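#dry-run=false #mode=assembly
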Amino acid sequence: MQTHLHTKSPLRLGLAGAVAAATIASLVAFTVPAHASSNPGFVLYSAQGYDHAAVTAFNATNPGFTVTLNDNSTGPLLEQIQAEGNNPKWGVLWVDGATAFAQLDNEGKLLKHSVPKVSFNSLGKANVPTDGSYTPTGLTVTGALCYNSAAVKASQLPSTWAQLEQSKYASVLGMNDPSQSGPTFPLIAGVMDQSGKYQSGSTSKAVADGHSFFSTLAKGGLLVSSTNGPTLGAMEQGSINMALVQSSACYGDELNGSFPAIRVKYLNYSIALPSAIGIDAKQPAIVRGDAQKFVDWVMSPAGQKVMQTGDPEGDSLFWPVLNNEKPANKVIPALSTTNAITINPYIWGPLESSVNTWFDKTVVPA
Amino acid sequence: MSDSRVPQPVGVVIEELRKEFGEKVALDGIDLTIEPGSFVVLLGPSGSGKTTLLRCVAGIERPSSGVIMINGVCVAGPKTFVQPEKRKTAMVFQDYALWPHLTVRKNIEFPIASSSRFKERKVQRVDDLLERVGIAHLASRYPNELSGGEQQRVALARALAADVGLILFDEPLSNLDADRREQLRIEIATLTREAGATAIYITHDQSEAFALADRVGVLNHGSLVQCDTPENIYRHPKNAFVTRFTGVAGECLVTSAKPLDDAYFNVSLPFAPSHSFKALGVDCHADMSSLHFFVRASGVLLDAPGGGDGVCAEVIDVAFNGRGYEHVVKIDDDMSLTKVFSARRFERNANVKVSFESSACFVMPAKGVKGS
Amino acid sequence: MADVTTSTAARPERVRAPRQRWPAKNPFSLGGIAIWVVLFLLIVAPVGCFLLLAVSPHLFDQGSQWFTLSFIRQAFEGYTGRGIFNSLWVSTLVSVLAVSAATTIAWLVHRTNIGARRLWSVSMWLLLLMPTWMMTLGWTDLLQPYGAAHAIGINTSWLYGEFFGPLGIIIVLTSSALPFAYFIVSAGLQGLGPEFEDAARIHGAGRTRTFATVLPIIAPAILSAIAISFAETMSDFGVAFTLGYHAHFPLATYTLFSAISNFPANFSVAAVIAAVLIVLTIPPIALQSVVMRRSKSYAVLSGRTRAPRRREFGRRSRYLSAAAVGLVVFIALGVPIIGALVGSFVQNLGDASGAGVHFTLLYYKQVIHPSIVDNGLGSPLLLSNQLGLVVASLTGVMAIVLARRLVATHGGWSQRITDIFLLGSVAVPGVVLGVGYIFFYNLSFITHHVVDIYKTLPLLMLGLMASALPGQTRFMAGPVSQIQPSLSEAARVHGATRFRTWRTTNMPLMSRVLVWGWLLTFTKTISELAISQILYPPSQEPASVTIQSYLANFESGTGTAMTVLTLVEMFGVILLALGIYRLVTPEGWRRTGFSVVN
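#status=ok
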């Protein structure tokens, strides 16, 4: 109409059009659902390093539905599940540590009797809940004492937890913050579990014992970092020489060459940390059925193989819970050398929030 | 420019127009009829509603009630509101409102673009307009590269380019210096009449109003107080407000007033109890006690102290204005006269005789009565 | 046309028009309602759901209590209480520091002939695009023992302990608040005619006194800058999560996060903290809006506007002032970039084993060859760019509509509410929006009867839009307010339809601010972490989340390399967008309006 006012060259129009088209195309791509099938499949909430591999392998078996992976850290996954409340979107949860599962079970969110009929070894059996609401898929241990062999000799290390309270150890010791690192609450719970008070039947006294133990470490100079990464980073930088972390993190760093001098020592006990998988009880039957197929597959030889190869320098470095499986890498010693103990998640799980809050208030700022 | 392009001037009829902004009443029932081809100036102090009235005619403001008709077509009424672009008007804004991102040429071209299809004709027309407003050499400049006067010429050219029967002017000269103001005023008067359009022009400057207008409408507090030719407004102001706003030399309370005939009154004033002054009575049937005496500057005569019949006064100030001298004289503490012209110079502190011409003297209630 | 006949027919008898009232312009107009519906869905409902948890956890299946005040007490105690207190004083200090620096820099850049002016303006822009977590990463990489500074032979061990404390937190937060304040104050300065400065100087005021005299005239802009810096700082998560945590200096956003990330999460305490964060921003907002109302806003962008004269510095002052601004820019922008850049080329940064410093391309190789790490940067970055494109475009449109409403002359209460609401929203931490989105968009009623988009990209998109919209609107309000309403009125009167007016008048005048606003949201979307982390759908990870997971998993070399590549990519998009803008727009468009470099 008034071409004279702003001269429009084809180039201008073309470019402007291209930008508009790209915007619309992206928008359409976002809003149009990728597929719509009669069997919706389910969403797997997982924090495991091998979850990509597992989902890819499982979907390739063509079970007639698709598993979608929601891969995130344990914290955000549990946060999402909790926020979803009575309208859950998750079908299966697969993270380390049984305490969270015990709490979900207490809230009635887990499908009971979902443990596949497989041949568990003794530690595996010890970690299967009586109501079958979740399945241990592998074990790592937490409370392993990782140390920097370039800075400290094995002979200079403590050999019991009690010795850590000495300031010569506590001042060069690090650990993670339980409110940011999933495997750390089980560690603290393990210490409480092993206190004489708990053995004599008083949980509250055991908790007080644990408080006093970690307060002593804090006074002695314990360095608390958020997660494995920063804790081991502090060790690499020389702020600390040893750290209480998850075994697989130490073995991983040793293997991938990012921290060649890292070694592991097990004290008089360590705490078994099952990686566990559980099914959402609130899903419709068809979804629960699909989920059960996935759990069965994970515990099958094919599933176990993917778990052991999917994250070779990380989460694949675990001890199998099945009788006929062996650890994936020679760097992993016999489980018996770890002095692993199992804690009752139904006793310790409900204490997680209060213990973590106490830790945040008292130990972290010290 | 060919005759065929001269637009037909249009008439404007405004009835009972009201506009409120929240609690504030900006227009309080305006009735005004504007003949096709006339140049109407709306005069009023700031806040009198003149800008609002103009914006309502333009369609930028939506009246609260009342009717506006342009060229016999209702553009604003209880159930009608014609969008500004459909009203076939043009406007010169107080701040010029030139689009800063367009060159002078494109600014002027803007209104043509929607009404003309032929490119060459358009170019020709813009050239013609640029020539007429005297800024042909600035066609490719951007507005911020122009002086205020040049910018206002662009704004004028743009309004003329619209080729419409009604051009609205919103205090177009208020941002210019005196020199340019005079010059542009003449151009506006000439070019608008040449273009054959009806014009509504608002200003707060009475000399500008009298110079431009066929008819002047005086507005106060949202009401149209008087609408008439400039001569009638000056000679027969309707009330004290109009009188004051169109210029008085002095004003004082009246001691007593007696009707002389149909038009004139004999009044006595406090500074000369023995004297009687003749003045045009306006609205004097009201309370006699609150009457004021007004005198236009043109009705004050100065004389040397000895001569003639008049009141004694003292010269406070004298200013040369080219043609003669403008004096400020003081009769007593309550009565001073300003802008008193005389071809002869009376020095400061000199005593003079002051006399009044009765046709330029008025007696009326001090408070302007509302409405027409 | 029917009206025409009736009115003309009525003419002869000179029938008086009935004194009938026109329907008053409705504050609940269709457009107004549409805007509030959008704001409700984007911000009010999700944040509202979250905040309700503070007193009623049972409402969202988070506990047994229907109504309780116990969480309020809990939030003010101990650790969380300390976080609130720290956030309050740090944000106050930071906003004052940032706005003082920003005002000085803005005045130097816009009103003097300071050396390298364009460089400082561009630097402010780059700073605006840097998220705080990237800044922290750069600083940490640089200062940590055996870090980047060590690698290039500078001993910074004396600074390390200092930086990992309130000092570092204040430095990074001030750096991050600086550019926003700078642009708001700059807009105010551009609206300030040179005559005020001239008048002051003619009447004998020196440099300092001129500045002090003119300052109150731009007080609304300055207060606006303070309010927004305060709100931005209060809601910042990047620093709280990294520096704040490691320095054992809890900030409210961290304690909020920590309340949520515990298991089971204490959403109620988190909600109280969020409410406190929002409430604390009310005083500066109120102050700003009072001052705004008292002083008339300056509408100055018209054909008549002239460029202000600049104060001519002598040679020495030019260099000195440039050096001072340069130092600020170096600390705020240069240091973190150098840290991240060097850090990404050093093998095993922070290794104390005495193995020596090895420069390497290893981490870049890992990023570029997805086979080496299980998930490269490629598809996350592509996704982030797509998200950025959509979010920036839609937010831009909404922000311009809101900004115009915000600066409308006859605004009344609805305008004031919009204003306060938008500023208050700036104080909502991303974590709160993210979790609020789960609560609201996963309500059974919503998923079954309205729309089921939880765990999909559209929801992430909405979340990102919600987080970008308040800031974006603020950013646009300044330039938009300077456009004289008479410009579009002139277009309408001279025969342009609404659409043509928009196309030929408003759009060209706003095109620059639209482009820059678009770029701002685009880059902020790509680097956004808190909401992305919570809302990204299964198997569709945005770049920031990928980077963060590498950084958190002790693969900081790879993470840092990804950060650097992402920055480079964003910079490329900025150049591309500006290039396209240059190509497609007529010259006049680029002569007017908001300007980054002037």
